[in-house]
Design a protein that fits this description.
alpha+beta; four-stranded antiparallel sheet; 694 residues; extended; 29 helices
């Protein structure tokens, strides 16, 4: 069981659970260290406080989510930026306001719907079925009881209902869908040439005087933060499990104890024919419908094709076209009378009419598979891992206290604790308080609690072991400093090349921009494209004719060309000036660009229009100038219905999102929101020093 919890809590479940309920302290396990300052309100929303621990936890969760999404390659500075802190705070305020709104508006989720929502959450499923024990243990390990979690889940669901309701109320005219489809399907003929930044940089000479002057004027840009190297020991369930070899008897016993887990439950497949009855139907109407059902039942029992009967007579639109096929029917999915009948039938049996609140059903059980248990040899590896982890969890619980005591009792060395517990003393490279060791992407120095401990006063100034650091609920770390460098401005000689390269890039961008502006002015005044390129010793290339075919390194060029207005003279580009600069292969940009495209089309004569010229910086610093020669409208008749449907759904979702944003903006306009900017800016320090300055 604990292994199942561990798998869920360290993988995708970490996001399912943490995102849904913002669990405090689950990631760091340090609640006992900041019980008082953690209660400080970082913001107050209509009199309702957002405590510091909640903000800190959400900020930590967001950082871990970004690291997970980026595979550890995210820029560490972005995880510590003020913009990110403000974004998290703003999001929490918005969520609190919407939660208050749905409560005040008496939005409500029934107990039955709440139960269904929780029992269908993959986090709480064991072999495809809801596991009450797993549910309770996961909540308890994350600091919540069922009552608190269910209240939060109920509010989350009502917010979803509000969002879905707003999306359902949005409307997109077919003409708007047509315009966007036509813009997406259009092709454009354009060619381009690149002014390489490298050529301009090579011609620039940055003297020592200029470089040193820039260095002195911008010392903060060349500051090296304090950094440290540490030794550490780690006690973990994974590490302990790796050294355990279960006996055959232990494996066999675990297999027997978890027999239900390795048993494929009984499954049934059924088809039905529904004769719907309105809730307010009178007795005569019901009798007529029942008679019709009995007549069709007689046909089915007489050998008529059940699927054909369903297609002809069934009132269930979801299964009718499939010949009444409902697929696998599991307990708890159907209304009680229907379920009772299905689970009392034999394979091939036809039964009915079965009355439910929906009407009368004729049911055919098409397949029945008895419960089957997988043999031990088939699941031996899984069972063995379960036993190893279970024993490791027990051993971890036993050794945790010894680990904490040993690193405290021998504060000037980790060797004694390592020898006593059979652990290896490991060493890190250089890392800072805010950034991991560049060669340790995704490793131990990527853990914020680890870095904070390394820069704690006991470790940094007193040369003592750190206290035991909890990472999740299955790892304990202790560390001590091995080397340290103070923050300092790097010497000019050390950063000379960096300064020169920066100044060259800046000057080259200025030079390219000036030259490009002159080239474009000449071309728009009637200059010759080929002659202009030859003069600059650059060659033209054809751009892909559809936006999605433009390669990623030319993304900015694709955005510019495919959002460019088109007119019959180079001098009249009003439509171009109003176009959206974003890519046209998204709903937002295509809808915004459609109006400009229409305006350009209106201005286009039957004769071939004059080319449109433009330019844009690319991501690598190069500059691309382009010539747009033709815009060929998309053929709406060739567009698949499914593509039209998907686009309409995206546009409806966009408009529904806009309605949601407008509602939130209206709520915020009348809300009373008070934010403590100091706590938003530096929650870590507030927690570490007991918030005495606030």
């Amino acid at each position: 069981m604990l292994t199942q919890i561990r798998e869920r809590a360290t993988g995708w479940l970490a996001w399912v659970i943490v995102i849904l309920i913002s669990i405090p302290f689950a990631l760091w396990g340090i609640q006992s260290y900041f019980e008082n300052p953690a209660d400080l309100p970082v913001a107050t929303v209509n009199g309702e406080e957002i405590p510091l621990y909640s903000y800190y936890n959400e900020l930590s969760r967001r950082r871990q989510a970004l690291l997970a999404e980026a595979g550890g390659s995210v820029n560490p500075a972005s995880l510590e930026s003020q913009a990110m802190r403000e974004e998290v705070m703003d999001s929490m305020i918005s969520n609190r306001l919407i939660g208050q709104y749905v409560r005040e508006s008496d939005y409500y989720l029934s107990d039955a719907r709440l139960k269904q929502r929780i029992e269908s959450n993959p986090a709480f499923l064991q072999d495809g079925r809801f596991d009450p024990d797993l549910y309770r243990i996961l909540l308890r390990n994350n600091g919540y009881n069922p009552q608190t979690y269910e209240a939060l889940e109920r509010e989350s669901a009502t917010v979803e209902q509000l969002s879905v309701g707003l999306a359902a109320s949005s409307f997109v005219p077919e003409t708007e869908v047509d315009r966007v489809l036509a813009l997406q399907a259009q092709t454009r003929k354009a060619d381009y040439a690149v002014l390489p930044a490298e050529r301009f940089e090579a011609a620039i000479d940055i003297g020592d005087a200029a470089a040193e002057r820039h260095y002195k004027d911008h010392p903060a840009d060349y500051e090296a933060p304090a950094r440290v190297q540490v030794a550490y020991i780690e006690l973990s369930i994974d590490g302990l499990a790796a050294g355990i070899e279960p006996t055959e008897a232990e494996i066999a016993q675990a297999y027997e104890d978890a027999a239900e887990r390795y048993t494929q439950p009984e499954s049934r497949k059924a088809s039905h024919i529904l004769f719907a009855v309105e809730a307010d139907a009178d007795d005569d109407a019901r009798a007529d419908i029942l008679a019709s059902a009995e007549a069709v039942l007689a046909e089915a029992e007489g050998g008529a094709d059940f699927a054909e009967l369903a297609q002809t007579h069934s009132d269930d639109p979801g299964s009718k076209e499939r010949g009444g096929d409902l697929g696998i029917v599991a307990r708890g999915q159907m209304v009680a009378p229907f379920e009772a009948a299905v689970f009392d039938m034999t394979e091939g049996e036809i039964r009915g009419p079965v009355e439910t609140r929906f009407g009368y059903h004729i049911i055919r059980l098409t397949e029945l598979q008895e419960a089957q248990r997988k043999p031990l040899d088939e699941v031996r590896e899984e069972v063995t891992e379960e036993v190893k982890r279970a024993q490791a969890e027990t051993l971890f619980a036993e050794q945790s206290e010894a680990f904490e005591n040993l690193v405290f009792e021998e504060p000037d060395s980790l060797d004694g604790a390592a020898a006593e517990l059979g652990l290896e003393v490991q060493h890190t490279g250089w890392f800072t308080e805010r950034a991991a060791d560049p060669d340790d992407s995704g490793g131990i120095t990527g853990e914020a609690p680890f870095r904070r401990a390394a820069f704690g006063e006991d470790v940094l100034n007193d040369d003592l072991n750190s206290a035991a650091i909890e990472l999740g609920f299955e790892r304990l770390i202790a560390l001590r400093k091995t080397d340290y460098e103070e923050a300092h401005t790097r010497d000019f000689d050390e950063v000379r090349e960096e300064v020169v390269a920066r100044l060259k890039r800046e000057q080259a961008a200025q030079d390219i921009g000036d030259l490009a502006a002159q080239l474009l002015d000449d071309l728009r005044a009637g200059g010759d494209w080929a002659a202009a390129l030859e003069e600059q010793d650059i060659e033209a290339e054809a751009l892909a004719e559809t936006r999605d075919a433009v390669p990623g390194n030319l993304s900015a060029l694709g955005d510019a060309v495919f959002s460019e207005g088109f007119s019959d003279t180079a001098a009249t580009d009003d439509a171009a000036a109003e176009t959206d600069a974003a890519a046209v292969d998204t709903v937002e940009s295509t809808a915004a660009a459609a109006a400009a495209a229409d305006a350009a089309a209106d201005a286009t004569p039957e004769s071939a229009p004059a080319p449109v010229y433009g330019g844009v910086f690319l991501a690598n610093g190069d500059y691309a100038i382009y010539r747009l020669n033709a815009v060929i409208p998309g053929d709406l008749s060739a567009i698949e219905p499914e593509r039209r449907r998907q686009l309409r759904e995206r546009m409806l979702a966009r408009d529904g999102g806009d309605l949601y944003d407008q509602l939130l903006a209206a709520i915020r306009d009348t809300a009373s929101v008070v934010i403590d900017p100091d706590l938003v800016r530096d929650p870590e320090t507030a927690l570490e020093i007991g918030a005495q300055n606030y």
